[in-house]
From TrEMBL:
Protein name, entry field: diguanylate cyclase
Cited InterPro entries: Diguanylate_Cyclase (IPR050469), GGDEF_dom (IPR000160), Nucleotide_cyclase (IPR029787), Rev_trsase/Diguanyl_cyclase (IPR043128)
Start and end residues of each GGDEF domain: 259-391
SMART domains: GGDEF (SM00267)
Alphabetical UniProt keywords: Coiled coil, Membrane, Transmembrane, Transmembrane helix
SUPFAM superfamilies, sorted: Nucleotide cyclase (SSF55073)
Classification via PROSITE patterns: GGDEF
Length: 398
């Protein structure tokens, strides 16, 4: 029956069954780029750099056919690029660089690119090799949005040093193929154009860092504001407003998925007597001790909140009243063993509880009323006990 319902057409006449082509494409994307967003972004950068390098290698083969480059150079470039970028891809794709300060491996990638540019510069004829210097600008621009400021400076200095050494050494070894005057002219142009590009890359990297820092600070501030808006200042538990939202969310899940839940109203026994006999400071310590005990004993999926004064509310998903009773008994035992305050070493916290399971079709306030009546009954019967709310009469539901 469920399989039939899942494949019925929706209101627009379209089937709800997953498209096998789209599903296959999604699996292929995850297989190539990685299982999570961060890994996919990093492998995307690696593959983009590999594509750019492949285009440059293709241009190098074309230049060799035209006689503008020595014939062995394109093959050597390709032979080094394939294993290098395969290694980069494997390291990033399978998360081996995740804990590094440079998880995108941009510094190794750009160092390799600069080595390739320097080699290509030595392999091109005297009058055409200046074209290769344009690729340095491409490397710098690509790193503007991924590098830290110091990394941008490092890349620029490395580029000038590598090309400067190549120009100086080669013009000294073979002045006919590498004319010293032309090499000096090109190096002067490099010195005149690359530093401003390095400065621009540094500034953009610094601005990006400041923006990232501001976003982190804003996110942290927002989290603190949300915590203040949803938490009780004394106990650290959720406040009444958050618990109301939590219950409405549970009602929606119950109506949509049939996920039953139970609410428990808890009231500390003789709390006024604690304040009168020991003072409000000990009373506050009693509230904090109860909150800590409830947080420790209940499950991570359960939600505990301060409903008001010495009254607390538990929302227990996928929990029957019988299981809620067991959890409350564990909490009662834990509190019986816990010292509340050094000012009153023998003082212990006791509580009464009303337990009600949410019923189909019932509004949330009806469930709370049932739990409240059960709590009143627990108080009336002598305190220190749990009372299960009976099911609502059929006429009361809805």
């Amino acid at each position: 029956m469920n399989a039939t319902v899942d494949t019925l057409p929706d209101a627009a006449g379209q089937s709800n069954a997953p498209d096998p082509i789209i599903d296959a494409m999604g699996r292929l994307v995850k297989f190539i780029f990685g299982p999570d967003r961060a890994t996919r972004a990093r492998t995307g950068v690696i593959l983009l750099c590999a594509i750019m390098y492949a285009i440059c290698c293709s241009a190098a083969f074309y230049a060799a056919e035209m006689g503008l480059m020595r014939s062995f150079a394109p093959r050597l470039l390709l032979a080094t690029a394939l294993p290098t970028y395969a290694l980069f891809y494997v390291l990033v794709r399978f998360g081996k660089t995740r804990r590094l300060r440079d998880p995108n491996l941009m510094i190794p990638q750009q160092s390799f690119s600069l080595l390739a540019i320097a080699f290509a510069y030595t392999a091109i004829g005297p009058h055409d090799r200046g074209l290769v210097l344009v690729l340095i600008a491409l490397v710098m621009v690509f790193g503007m949005y991924t590098h830290q400021p110091r990394q941008s400076v490092f890349t620029g200095v490395l580029a000038m040093a590598m090309l400067g050494v190549c120009m100086g050494v080669l013009s000294h070894i073979d002045p006919e193929f590498y004319p010293p005057t032309l090499e000096l002219l090109r190096f002067e142009l490099l010195l005149g154009t690359l530093p401003p590009l390095v400065l621009a890359a540094y500034q953009i990297s610094a601005w990006r860092n400041r923006l990232s820092q501001q976003r982190r600070e804003l996110r942290s501030t927002l989290e603190k504001v949300q915590a203040l808006a949803s938490r009780d200042a004394l106990t650290g538990l959720y406040n009444r407003r958050h618990m109301q939202d939590k219950m409405q969310d549970c009602v929606r899940r119950f109506e949509r998925y049939g996920e039953r839940f139970t609410v428990v109203l808890v009231d500390l026994d003789h709390f006024k007597r604690i304040n009168d006999q020991h003072g409000h400071r000990v009373g506050d310590e009693a509230l904090v001790a109860f909150s800590a005990g409830a947080t420790m004993v209940l499950r991570d999926s359960d939600t505990v909140g301060r409903w008001g004064g010495e009254e607390f509310l538990f929302v227990l998903p996928n929990t029957s009243p019988r299981k809620a009773d067991i959890a409350l008994q564990r909490l009662r035992d834990a509190l019986a063993r816990s010292q509340i305050s050094t000012a009153a070493p023998t003082l212990r916290v006791a509580f009464s509880a009303g337990v009600a399971q949410h019923e189909p079709g019932a509004p949330m306030h009806r469930t709370l009323e049932r739990a409240d009546r059960a709590l009143y009954q627990a108080k009336h019967e002598g305190r220190g006990r749990n009372v299960m709310a009976p099911p609502s009469p059929v006429t009361d539901v809805g």
